[in-house]
Design brief:
7 strands; four-stranded mixed β-sheet; 6% strand; globular; 20 helices
Length: 510
Protein backbone atom coordinates (compact mmCIF):
# COMPACT_ATOMS: atom_id res chain seq x y z
CA UNK A 1 0.00 0.00 0.00
CA UNK A 2 1.44 3.35 -1.07
CA UNK A 3 1.32 6.57 0.92
CA UNK A 4 -1.41 7.83 -1.41
CA UNK A 5 -3.40 4.66 -0.71
CA UNK A 6 -3.15 5.37 3.02
CA UNK A 7 -4.38 8.92 2.49
CA UNK A 8 -7.30 7.51 0.48
CA UNK A 9 -8.18 5.15 3.35
CA UNK A 10 -8.12 8.08 5.78
CA UNK A 11 -10.26 10.12 3.39
CA UNK A 12 -12.77 7.27 3.19
CA UNK A 13 -13.03 7.23 6.98
CA UNK A 14 -13.65 10.97 6.97
CA UNK A 15 -16.43 10.40 4.43
CA UNK A 16 -18.03 7.87 6.79
CA UNK A 17 -18.01 10.44 9.59
CA UNK A 18 -19.34 13.20 7.32
CA UNK A 19 -22.19 11.02 6.07
CA UNK A 20 -23.03 9.97 9.63
CA UNK A 21 -23.18 13.64 10.67
CA UNK A 22 -25.61 14.42 7.85
CA UNK A 23 -27.70 11.37 8.77
CA UNK A 24 -27.78 12.29 12.45
CA UNK A 25 -27.89 16.08 12.49
CA UNK A 26 -29.99 16.74 9.39
CA UNK A 27 -32.21 13.68 8.93
CA UNK A 28 -32.03 12.65 12.61
CA UNK A 29 -31.63 9.01 11.51
CA UNK A 30 -35.30 8.87 10.55
CA UNK A 31 -37.29 8.17 7.41
CA UNK A 32 -38.79 11.19 5.66
CA UNK A 33 -39.69 9.98 2.17
CA UNK A 34 -42.28 7.28 1.53
CA UNK A 35 -39.50 5.20 -0.05
CA UNK A 36 -37.55 5.15 3.20
CA UNK A 37 -40.54 4.00 5.24
CA UNK A 38 -41.06 1.09 2.86
CA UNK A 39 -37.36 0.15 2.88
CA UNK A 40 -37.21 0.16 6.68
CA UNK A 41 -40.41 -1.87 6.99
CA UNK A 42 -39.19 -4.50 4.51
CA UNK A 43 -35.74 -4.56 6.11
CA UNK A 44 -37.31 -5.26 9.50
CA UNK A 45 -39.43 -8.04 8.03
CA UNK A 46 -36.40 -9.66 6.38
CA UNK A 47 -34.39 -9.28 9.60
CA UNK A 48 -37.16 -11.27 11.27
CA UNK A 49 -36.79 -14.06 8.70
CA UNK A 50 -39.83 -13.32 6.52
CA UNK A 51 -40.46 -12.03 3.01
CA UNK A 52 -44.07 -10.98 3.60
CA UNK A 53 -46.44 -10.68 6.55
CA UNK A 54 -50.16 -11.36 6.76
CA UNK A 55 -52.17 -8.22 6.15
CA UNK A 56 -53.45 -6.70 9.39
CA UNK A 57 -57.19 -6.72 10.05
CA UNK A 58 -57.38 -2.95 9.45
CA UNK A 59 -54.82 -2.36 6.68
CA UNK A 60 -55.87 1.23 5.92
CA UNK A 61 -55.57 2.20 9.58
CA UNK A 62 -52.12 0.59 9.89
CA UNK A 63 -50.85 2.26 6.73
CA UNK A 64 -47.15 2.14 5.88
CA UNK A 65 -46.24 4.26 2.82
CA UNK A 66 -45.50 2.13 -0.27
CA UNK A 67 -46.24 -1.08 1.63
CA UNK A 68 -48.90 -3.07 -0.20
CA UNK A 69 -51.69 -5.34 1.00
CA UNK A 70 -52.42 -7.87 -1.73
CA UNK A 71 -54.25 -11.17 -1.55
CA UNK A 72 -53.91 -11.32 2.23
CA UNK A 73 -50.17 -10.55 2.28
CA UNK A 74 -48.34 -7.34 3.15
CA UNK A 75 -45.04 -6.41 1.47
CA UNK A 76 -43.11 -3.36 0.25
CA UNK A 77 -43.24 -2.52 -3.43
CA UNK A 78 -39.45 -2.19 -3.79
CA UNK A 79 -37.03 -4.92 -4.92
CA UNK A 80 -35.18 -6.88 -2.26
CA UNK A 81 -31.59 -5.79 -2.92
CA UNK A 82 -31.47 -2.81 -0.59
CA UNK A 83 -33.86 -4.10 2.13
CA UNK A 84 -31.66 -7.19 2.49
CA UNK A 85 -28.59 -5.02 3.07
CA UNK A 86 -30.54 -2.78 5.44
CA UNK A 87 -31.76 -5.84 7.34
CA UNK A 88 -28.15 -6.77 8.16
CA UNK A 89 -27.71 -3.40 9.84
CA UNK A 90 -31.03 -3.80 11.64
CA UNK A 91 -30.01 -7.23 12.95
CA UNK A 92 -26.85 -5.89 14.59
CA UNK A 93 -28.40 -2.60 15.73
CA UNK A 94 -26.46 -0.46 13.24
CA UNK A 95 -29.20 0.50 10.78
CA UNK A 96 -28.24 4.16 10.86
CA UNK A 97 -24.61 3.38 9.97
CA UNK A 98 -25.29 1.28 6.88
CA UNK A 99 -25.32 4.13 4.37
CA UNK A 100 -22.44 6.09 5.99
CA UNK A 101 -20.26 2.97 5.91
CA UNK A 102 -21.25 2.32 2.29
CA UNK A 103 -20.40 5.96 1.53
CA UNK A 104 -16.87 5.36 2.79
CA UNK A 105 -16.60 2.21 0.68
CA UNK A 106 -17.84 4.18 -2.33
CA UNK A 107 -15.14 6.82 -1.80
CA UNK A 108 -12.46 4.10 -1.67
CA UNK A 109 -13.78 2.42 -4.82
CA UNK A 110 -13.85 5.76 -6.66
CA UNK A 111 -10.23 6.29 -5.64
CA UNK A 112 -9.34 2.81 -6.90
CA UNK A 113 -11.18 3.38 -10.17
CA UNK A 114 -9.55 6.78 -10.69
CA UNK A 115 -6.13 5.37 -9.88
CA UNK A 116 -6.70 2.42 -12.18
CA UNK A 117 -7.67 4.63 -15.12
CA UNK A 118 -5.77 7.93 -14.76
CA UNK A 119 -3.36 7.63 -11.84
CA UNK A 120 -3.18 8.12 -8.07
CA UNK A 121 -3.49 11.90 -8.15
CA UNK A 122 -6.72 11.79 -10.13
CA UNK A 123 -8.09 8.98 -7.97
CA UNK A 124 -7.40 10.81 -4.71
CA UNK A 125 -8.81 14.10 -5.97
CA UNK A 126 -11.89 12.30 -7.32
CA UNK A 127 -12.52 10.70 -3.92
CA UNK A 128 -12.15 14.10 -2.26
CA UNK A 129 -14.61 15.69 -4.70
CA UNK A 130 -17.04 12.84 -4.07
CA UNK A 131 -16.75 13.22 -0.30
CA UNK A 132 -17.53 16.94 -0.43
CA UNK A 133 -20.34 16.67 -2.98
CA UNK A 134 -23.70 17.85 -1.57
CA UNK A 135 -25.40 15.45 -3.96
CA UNK A 136 -23.43 12.53 -2.54
CA UNK A 137 -23.70 13.49 1.13
CA UNK A 138 -27.45 14.02 0.92
CA UNK A 139 -28.00 10.48 -0.37
CA UNK A 140 -25.49 9.09 2.15
CA UNK A 141 -27.47 10.66 4.99
CA UNK A 142 -30.76 9.08 3.98
CA UNK A 143 -32.06 5.53 4.19
CA UNK A 144 -32.47 5.29 0.42
CA UNK A 145 -30.85 2.68 -1.82
CA UNK A 146 -28.67 4.96 -3.94
CA UNK A 147 -25.35 4.66 -2.08
CA UNK A 148 -25.55 0.86 -2.17
CA UNK A 149 -26.34 1.13 -5.87
CA UNK A 150 -23.31 3.42 -6.33
CA UNK A 151 -21.04 0.91 -4.61
CA UNK A 152 -22.29 -1.85 -6.91
CA UNK A 153 -21.94 0.30 -10.03
CA UNK A 154 -18.41 1.42 -9.15
CA UNK A 155 -17.37 -2.11 -8.20
CA UNK A 156 -18.77 -3.46 -11.45
CA UNK A 157 -16.92 -0.83 -13.52
CA UNK A 158 -13.65 -1.43 -11.70
CA UNK A 159 -13.74 -5.22 -12.05
CA UNK A 160 -14.94 -5.02 -15.65
CA UNK A 161 -11.96 -2.86 -16.58
CA UNK A 162 -9.54 -5.01 -14.59
CA UNK A 163 -10.81 -8.15 -16.27
CA UNK A 164 -11.32 -7.04 -19.86
CA UNK A 165 -8.91 -4.20 -20.45
CA UNK A 166 -5.76 -6.05 -19.36
CA UNK A 167 -4.03 -9.24 -20.34
CA UNK A 168 -3.24 -10.21 -16.75
CA UNK A 169 -3.77 -13.89 -15.99
CA UNK A 170 -4.10 -13.33 -12.24
CA UNK A 171 -7.78 -13.35 -11.25
CA UNK A 172 -8.86 -13.67 -14.87
CA UNK A 173 -12.03 -15.56 -13.85
CA UNK A 174 -12.59 -14.05 -10.42
CA UNK A 175 -12.74 -10.48 -11.70
CA UNK A 176 -15.40 -11.00 -14.39
CA UNK A 177 -17.36 -13.12 -11.92
CA UNK A 178 -17.31 -10.30 -9.35
CA UNK A 179 -18.28 -7.82 -12.07
CA UNK A 180 -21.29 -9.99 -12.93
CA UNK A 181 -22.16 -10.33 -9.26
CA UNK A 182 -22.13 -6.54 -8.79
CA UNK A 183 -24.26 -5.89 -11.86
CA UNK A 184 -26.68 -8.68 -11.02
CA UNK A 185 -27.21 -7.48 -7.44
CA UNK A 186 -27.71 -3.98 -8.83
CA UNK A 187 -30.52 -5.47 -10.91
CA UNK A 188 -32.06 -6.80 -7.69
CA UNK A 189 -31.78 -3.33 -6.16
CA UNK A 190 -32.64 -0.81 -8.90
CA UNK A 191 -33.60 -2.71 -12.08
CA UNK A 192 -34.01 0.29 -14.39
CA UNK A 193 -30.70 1.74 -13.21
CA UNK A 194 -29.05 -1.63 -13.87
CA UNK A 195 -30.41 -1.64 -17.44
CA UNK A 196 -29.09 1.90 -18.00
CA UNK A 197 -25.61 0.97 -16.75
CA UNK A 198 -25.57 -2.32 -18.66
CA UNK A 199 -26.27 -0.63 -22.01
CA UNK A 200 -22.85 1.02 -22.62
CA UNK A 201 -21.00 -1.96 -21.16
CA UNK A 202 -23.14 -4.27 -23.27
CA UNK A 203 -21.96 -2.45 -26.40
CA UNK A 204 -18.39 -2.79 -25.18
CA UNK A 205 -18.98 -6.48 -24.49
CA UNK A 206 -20.38 -7.07 -27.98
CA UNK A 207 -17.28 -5.46 -29.49
CA UNK A 208 -15.09 -7.74 -27.39
CA UNK A 209 -17.11 -10.76 -28.49
CA UNK A 210 -16.48 -9.78 -32.11
CA UNK A 211 -12.87 -8.61 -31.94
CA UNK A 212 -11.51 -9.81 -28.61
CA UNK A 213 -9.41 -12.85 -27.79
CA UNK A 214 -11.01 -16.13 -26.85
CA UNK A 215 -10.20 -15.46 -23.17
CA UNK A 216 -11.98 -12.11 -23.26
CA UNK A 217 -14.98 -13.64 -24.98
CA UNK A 218 -15.28 -16.20 -22.21
CA UNK A 219 -14.94 -13.47 -19.59
CA UNK A 220 -17.71 -11.41 -21.21
CA UNK A 221 -19.96 -14.48 -21.32
CA UNK A 222 -19.18 -15.25 -17.66
CA UNK A 223 -20.03 -11.70 -16.57
CA UNK A 224 -23.22 -11.65 -18.61
CA UNK A 225 -24.27 -15.12 -17.48
CA UNK A 226 -23.91 -14.34 -13.78
CA UNK A 227 -25.75 -11.06 -14.27
CA UNK A 228 -28.69 -12.71 -16.02
CA UNK A 229 -28.90 -15.51 -13.46
CA UNK A 230 -29.14 -13.02 -10.61
CA UNK A 231 -31.51 -10.76 -12.52
CA UNK A 232 -33.88 -13.69 -13.04
CA UNK A 233 -34.38 -13.74 -9.26
CA UNK A 234 -36.14 -10.38 -9.62
CA UNK A 235 -38.95 -12.10 -11.53
CA UNK A 236 -38.99 -14.98 -9.05
CA UNK A 237 -39.46 -12.36 -6.33
CA UNK A 238 -42.37 -10.80 -8.24
CA UNK A 239 -43.93 -14.26 -8.59
CA UNK A 240 -43.48 -14.98 -4.89
CA UNK A 241 -45.33 -11.77 -4.00
CA UNK A 242 -48.01 -11.54 -6.65
CA UNK A 243 -48.30 -15.01 -8.18
CA UNK A 244 -47.10 -13.66 -11.54
CA UNK A 245 -43.56 -13.28 -12.83
CA UNK A 246 -44.28 -10.05 -14.74
CA UNK A 247 -46.51 -8.20 -12.24
CA UNK A 248 -44.58 -5.18 -11.00
CA UNK A 249 -45.49 -4.46 -7.35
CA UNK A 250 -45.14 -0.75 -8.09
CA UNK A 251 -48.40 -0.95 -10.06
CA UNK A 252 -50.23 -2.48 -7.09
CA UNK A 253 -49.82 0.81 -5.22
CA UNK A 254 -50.34 3.14 -8.19
CA UNK A 255 -51.50 1.54 -11.43
CA UNK A 256 -49.83 4.34 -13.40
CA UNK A 257 -46.40 3.88 -11.78
CA UNK A 258 -44.72 2.51 -14.91
CA UNK A 259 -41.93 3.43 -17.29
CA UNK A 260 -43.20 4.58 -20.66
CA UNK A 261 -45.26 7.13 -22.52
CA UNK A 262 -48.94 7.61 -23.25
CA UNK A 263 -52.18 6.87 -21.39
CA UNK A 264 -51.75 4.87 -18.21
CA UNK A 265 -48.24 6.13 -17.56
CA UNK A 266 -47.99 8.88 -14.95
CA UNK A 267 -50.53 11.23 -13.44
CA UNK A 268 -51.03 13.90 -16.09
CA UNK A 269 -53.97 13.78 -18.45
CA UNK A 270 -53.11 11.76 -21.52
CA UNK A 271 -50.21 10.08 -19.75
CA UNK A 272 -46.51 10.74 -19.67
CA UNK A 273 -45.13 12.51 -22.74
CA UNK A 274 -41.82 13.31 -24.36
CA UNK A 275 -42.35 16.96 -23.43
CA UNK A 276 -42.90 16.10 -19.77
CA UNK A 277 -39.86 13.83 -19.88
CA UNK A 278 -37.75 16.66 -21.27
CA UNK A 279 -39.08 19.04 -18.60
CA UNK A 280 -38.27 16.58 -15.78
CA UNK A 281 -34.80 15.99 -17.23
CA UNK A 282 -34.10 19.70 -17.56
CA UNK A 283 -35.11 20.40 -13.96
CA UNK A 284 -33.05 17.49 -12.65
CA UNK A 285 -29.93 18.58 -14.55
CA UNK A 286 -30.34 22.18 -13.39
CA UNK A 287 -30.44 20.98 -9.78
CA UNK A 288 -27.42 18.78 -10.42
CA UNK A 289 -25.44 21.73 -11.81
CA UNK A 290 -25.32 23.08 -8.25
CA UNK A 291 -25.53 19.93 -6.17
CA UNK A 292 -22.73 18.07 -7.95
CA UNK A 293 -19.91 19.88 -6.14
CA UNK A 294 -21.71 22.84 -4.60
CA UNK A 295 -19.98 25.29 -6.93
CA UNK A 296 -23.14 27.30 -7.40
CA UNK A 297 -24.43 26.48 -10.90
CA UNK A 298 -21.06 25.67 -12.47
CA UNK A 299 -20.13 22.38 -10.85
CA UNK A 300 -19.62 20.90 -14.30
CA UNK A 301 -17.20 23.65 -15.39
CA UNK A 302 -14.05 21.48 -15.61
CA UNK A 303 -15.70 18.36 -17.03
CA UNK A 304 -14.98 19.41 -20.65
CA UNK A 305 -11.25 19.56 -19.88
CA UNK A 306 -11.36 16.04 -18.45
CA UNK A 307 -13.20 14.84 -21.54
CA UNK A 308 -10.64 16.45 -23.83
CA UNK A 309 -7.73 14.98 -21.90
CA UNK A 310 -9.26 11.48 -21.84
CA UNK A 311 -10.89 11.53 -25.28
CA UNK A 312 -8.80 8.56 -26.47
CA UNK A 313 -9.57 6.40 -23.46
CA UNK A 314 -12.30 3.74 -23.67
CA UNK A 315 -13.28 4.33 -20.06
CA UNK A 316 -14.29 7.90 -20.94
CA UNK A 317 -16.95 6.62 -23.30
CA UNK A 318 -18.17 4.17 -20.70
CA UNK A 319 -18.46 7.00 -18.15
CA UNK A 320 -20.34 9.15 -20.64
CA UNK A 321 -22.45 6.17 -21.68
CA UNK A 322 -23.59 5.62 -18.08
CA UNK A 323 -24.69 9.27 -17.75
CA UNK A 324 -26.44 9.46 -21.11
CA UNK A 325 -28.12 6.11 -20.59
CA UNK A 326 -29.43 7.06 -17.14
CA UNK A 327 -30.70 10.42 -18.38
CA UNK A 328 -32.37 8.87 -21.41
CA UNK A 329 -34.06 5.96 -19.67
CA UNK A 330 -35.31 7.97 -16.71
CA UNK A 331 -36.81 10.52 -19.10
CA UNK A 332 -39.34 7.75 -19.75
CA UNK A 333 -40.31 7.72 -16.06
CA UNK A 334 -43.18 10.03 -15.23
CA UNK A 335 -41.64 11.76 -12.20
CA UNK A 336 -38.38 13.70 -11.91
CA UNK A 337 -35.91 13.98 -9.06
CA UNK A 338 -35.01 17.34 -7.54
CA UNK A 339 -35.61 17.31 -3.78
CA UNK A 340 -32.51 15.28 -2.96
CA UNK A 341 -30.79 16.26 -6.18
CA UNK A 342 -31.09 14.33 -9.48
CA UNK A 343 -30.87 11.01 -7.64
CA UNK A 344 -31.97 8.94 -10.63
CA UNK A 345 -28.59 9.83 -12.16
CA UNK A 346 -26.66 9.16 -8.96
CA UNK A 347 -24.75 6.16 -10.30
CA UNK A 348 -23.06 8.40 -12.89
CA UNK A 349 -21.16 10.14 -10.07
CA UNK A 350 -17.94 8.03 -10.21
CA UNK A 351 -17.34 8.92 -13.85
CA UNK A 352 -18.22 12.59 -13.30
CA UNK A 353 -15.90 13.08 -10.32
CA UNK A 354 -13.05 11.24 -12.03
CA UNK A 355 -13.36 13.32 -15.22
CA UNK A 356 -13.64 16.52 -13.18
CA UNK A 357 -10.52 15.55 -11.22
CA UNK A 358 -8.74 14.78 -14.48
CA UNK A 359 -9.67 18.21 -15.81
CA UNK A 360 -8.29 19.89 -12.69
CA UNK A 361 -5.02 17.98 -12.75
CA UNK A 362 -4.53 18.58 -16.45
CA UNK A 363 -5.22 22.29 -16.05
CA UNK A 364 -2.68 22.33 -13.24
CA UNK A 365 -0.13 20.63 -15.55
CA UNK A 366 0.40 17.71 -13.22
CA UNK A 367 0.65 15.51 -16.32
CA UNK A 368 3.96 16.93 -17.53
CA UNK A 369 5.68 13.55 -17.67
CA UNK A 370 8.91 12.37 -16.05
CA UNK A 371 11.01 14.02 -18.75
CA UNK A 372 9.78 17.46 -17.72
CA UNK A 373 9.21 17.38 -13.95
CA UNK A 374 7.69 20.36 -12.13
CA UNK A 375 10.90 21.28 -10.30
CA UNK A 376 12.62 22.04 -13.62
CA UNK A 377 9.85 24.25 -14.90
CA UNK A 378 9.87 28.00 -14.70
CA UNK A 379 7.65 31.02 -15.14
CA UNK A 380 3.93 30.46 -15.61
CA UNK A 381 4.38 26.68 -15.96
CA UNK A 382 5.63 26.58 -12.40
CA UNK A 383 3.06 29.01 -10.99
CA UNK A 384 0.06 27.42 -12.71
CA UNK A 385 -0.21 24.30 -10.50
CA UNK A 386 -0.16 26.45 -7.37
CA UNK A 387 -2.74 28.81 -8.87
CA UNK A 388 -5.09 25.97 -9.86
CA UNK A 389 -4.67 24.31 -6.46
CA UNK A 390 -5.64 27.57 -4.77
CA UNK A 391 -8.66 28.07 -7.05
CA UNK A 392 -9.85 24.49 -6.53
CA UNK A 393 -9.35 24.80 -2.77
CA UNK A 394 -11.41 28.00 -2.75
CA UNK A 395 -14.22 26.30 -4.66
CA UNK A 396 -14.24 23.36 -2.25
CA UNK A 397 -14.10 25.71 0.74
CA UNK A 398 -16.94 27.78 -0.71
CA UNK A 399 -19.03 24.63 -1.00
CA UNK A 400 -18.24 23.40 2.52
CA UNK A 401 -18.76 26.80 4.14
CA UNK A 402 -21.62 28.29 2.11
CA UNK A 403 -23.48 25.96 -0.23
CA UNK A 404 -23.37 22.60 1.59
CA UNK A 405 -24.70 23.79 4.99
CA UNK A 406 -27.49 25.77 3.34
CA UNK A 407 -28.42 22.93 1.01
CA UNK A 408 -28.60 20.17 3.59
CA UNK A 409 -30.15 22.26 6.38
CA UNK A 410 -33.11 23.07 4.15
CA UNK A 411 -33.90 19.35 4.35
CA UNK A 412 -33.96 19.28 8.17
CA UNK A 413 -37.44 18.53 9.41
CA UNK A 414 -38.54 17.62 5.89
CA UNK A 415 -42.33 17.26 5.68
CA UNK A 416 -42.51 18.19 9.36
CA UNK A 417 -40.97 14.86 10.44
CA UNK A 418 -38.59 15.28 13.38
CA UNK A 419 -37.32 13.07 16.17
CA UNK A 420 -38.94 15.41 18.68
CA UNK A 421 -42.26 13.98 17.42
CA UNK A 422 -41.37 10.81 19.33
CA UNK A 423 -40.64 12.47 22.67
CA UNK A 424 -44.06 11.84 24.21
CA UNK A 425 -43.73 8.11 23.47
CA UNK A 426 -40.11 7.65 24.57
CA UNK A 427 -40.29 9.32 28.00
CA UNK A 428 -40.08 7.20 31.17
CA UNK A 429 -43.71 8.04 31.89
CA UNK A 430 -44.78 6.59 28.54
CA UNK A 431 -43.59 3.11 29.55
CA UNK A 432 -46.33 2.97 32.17
CA UNK A 433 -48.95 3.32 29.44
CA UNK A 434 -47.79 0.35 27.36
CA UNK A 435 -48.82 -1.80 25.68
CA UNK A 436 -50.99 0.76 23.93
CA UNK A 437 -52.80 1.51 20.70
CA UNK A 438 -52.56 5.16 19.67
CA UNK A 439 -55.07 6.41 17.11
CA UNK A 440 -53.48 9.37 15.34
CA UNK A 441 -55.82 12.07 14.05
CA UNK A 442 -54.13 14.01 11.25
CA UNK A 443 -55.20 15.16 7.83
CA UNK A 444 -51.90 14.23 6.17
CA UNK A 445 -49.95 11.00 6.64
CA UNK A 446 -46.68 12.65 7.77
CA UNK A 447 -47.51 13.31 11.47
CA UNK A 448 -48.68 9.70 11.70
CA UNK A 449 -45.78 8.40 9.61
CA UNK A 450 -43.09 9.88 11.86
CA UNK A 451 -44.35 7.66 14.70
CA UNK A 452 -43.76 4.47 12.70
CA UNK A 453 -40.14 4.69 13.85
CA UNK A 454 -41.40 3.16 17.12
CA UNK A 455 -43.61 0.47 15.60
CA UNK A 456 -42.70 -3.07 14.57
CA UNK A 457 -44.09 -4.51 11.31
CA UNK A 458 -45.70 -7.33 13.30
CA UNK A 459 -47.59 -4.81 15.47
CA UNK A 460 -46.22 -6.23 18.71
CA UNK A 461 -44.18 -3.22 19.86
CA UNK A 462 -45.08 -1.35 23.09
CA UNK A 463 -46.84 1.34 21.06
CA UNK A 464 -48.68 0.67 17.82
CA UNK A 465 -50.15 3.51 15.79
CA UNK A 466 -53.29 3.64 13.68
CA UNK A 467 -54.14 6.49 11.33
CA UNK A 468 -57.69 7.61 11.98
CA UNK A 469 -59.85 7.07 8.90
CA UNK A 470 -63.22 7.63 10.55
CA UNK A 471 -65.08 7.26 13.88
CA UNK A 472 -66.60 3.91 12.99
CA UNK A 473 -63.31 2.23 12.09
CA UNK A 474 -61.61 3.85 15.09
CA UNK A 475 -64.23 2.36 17.40
CA UNK A 476 -63.79 -1.06 15.84
CA UNK A 477 -60.05 -0.77 16.51
CA UNK A 478 -60.70 0.14 20.13
CA UNK A 479 -62.95 -2.89 20.55
CA UNK A 480 -60.43 -5.23 18.92
CA UNK A 481 -57.57 -4.20 21.19
CA UNK A 482 -59.56 -3.46 24.35
CA UNK A 483 -58.41 -6.64 26.11
CA UNK A 484 -54.73 -6.41 25.20
CA UNK A 485 -53.88 -2.71 24.98
CA UNK A 486 -54.82 0.63 26.40
CA UNK A 487 -56.18 2.98 23.76
CA UNK A 488 -55.33 6.65 23.31
CA UNK A 489 -56.21 9.33 20.78
CA UNK A 490 -53.45 11.64 19.63
CA UNK A 491 -53.77 14.98 17.85
CA UNK A 492 -50.21 15.89 16.76
CA UNK A 493 -51.22 19.12 15.02
CA UNK A 494 -53.43 20.43 17.83
CA UNK A 495 -51.84 19.03 21.01
CA UNK A 496 -48.52 17.36 20.12
CA UNK A 497 -47.61 16.63 23.74
CA UNK A 498 -50.81 15.09 25.03
CA UNK A 499 -52.67 11.78 24.79
CA UNK A 500 -56.43 11.56 25.20
CA UNK A 501 -58.27 8.45 26.41
CA UNK A 502 -61.28 9.38 24.27
CA UNK A 503 -61.80 11.31 21.01
CA UNK A 504 -61.92 15.09 21.41
CA UNK A 505 -65.01 16.37 19.51
CA UNK A 506 -63.49 19.72 18.63
CA UNK A 507 -60.40 18.10 17.12
CA UNK A 508 -62.11 15.46 14.99
CA UNK A 509 -60.84 15.39 11.41
CA UNK A 510 -63.42 14.20 8.91
Amino acid sequence: MTSIDRIAVLLSLVVVIGAALVAGLVFENMAHLEDEFAYIWQGQVIAGGDLTLPSPEFPSSFLVPFVIDYQGARFAKYPLGWPVVLSLGIKVGLRDWVNPILAGIAAWLVYRLGKRTFGETVGLLAAALLGTSPFFLIQAGTLLSHVWSLVLCTGFTLFWIDALETEEKQGRWVKPAVAGLCLGVLGLTRPLTMVAIALPFGIHGILLLIKGSSRKRRQVILTGGITLCLLSLHFVWQWALTGRFLTNPYTLWWTYDKVGFGPGYGVIEGGHSLLQGWWNTKQSLQTGASDLFGWWKISWILLPLGLIKARKSKITYLFLGILLSLVSLYAAYWIGSRLFGPRYYFEALPGLVILEALGITWLASWFTGSANPWRYQGGWDRVRPVFIICCTSLLIFGNLYFHLPERILELKGLYGIERSDLAIFTSPEAEELTPALVIVHSELWMPYGSLLELESPTLDSPFIFAWSIGPRTDQELVEKYSETRLTFHYYPEQEPGKLHPFPVPGYLIE
